[in-house]
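Consider the following input, taken from an annotated entry for Tripartite tricarboxylate transporter substrate binding protein (Comamonas koreensis).
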Amino acid sequence: MLPPFFFRPGLAATVGLLAWAASMAAGAQAAAHYPSKPITLVIAYPPGGSTDAVGRMVGTELAQRLKQPVVIENLGGAGGAIGAQKVARAPADGYTLLLAANNEMAIAPLINKAIKYRVFEDFTPISLVATQPMVLVASQASGVKNTQAFLSLLRQNPGKYSYGSSGVGTALHIAGEMVQQAGDVTMTHVPYKGVAPLTNDLLGGSLEFGVFVLSSGLPHIRAGKVVALGTTEAKRSPVTPDIPALAETSAFAKVDINSWFALMGPAKLPPHVLAALRGALADTLQSPSFRAKLEASGNVMAAPGQDMGAFLKAQVAKYQQIVETAKIEDR
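Applying the prediction step yields:
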């Protein structure tokens, strides 16, 4: 739309038009130059967890490649939904991003009717960053040392034993339900408010089984405080080749689930912003030093160029089947 002075005759109109055109060009150039100020990276969990660790690594890499500071904002609560909601409502300019995990992106909307954001309508998938398996563990007090003993014990005592997770509807809970469905066994789910109390009860022997993300469980496994029965991806993790995959046991052949981390933005990010972010992440995902840092924390780096939208749709479909079978609802 042309400005009003365009319709005025004479020199004033010409000068006005030139000034208007110059201002429009300057605005367009500023918009195209992304980023031109610090970026906020929201991590929807408190400091210290696996999502926070990956998010801080990603923030450092983005800052180096995009030549702007990346400010980490930990905004925990509601299983990641509060942080996700903030990003969904943020301006679509690329200055507020989310280091997303499967809890708030693929699970919480399936089980919590109070969540207002819509995953496929309110976010722009930018890039998958990393994955890591979860690991099913047994307490030393349980006496269980492998999957065959685990299955035998549960089949002889249906519903007698319990497993713990970090809360209802978390990826750990979903993994535990997948294990039960695959193995045709029954345990009582004990939801904890975080990994720390779950760990205390496992180590103290008042809880027989539990599910950790690999990075959280590995120190206790290595120390011999809990027994690793198997990781939850279809194949062994390259980070822990000595720990078998649950799928190596025929009863658990279909168990294939993990935790994942991805960079997301608000819906309708401008193409030049999306291209800049995807380019920076692609460079990051080809970095040997970044790979080494991720693997040291139990993660496996994602392949550059993976279709994040298709990946997310497949993950939601997988979780939906488990949630519906187990009738999981976050009240």
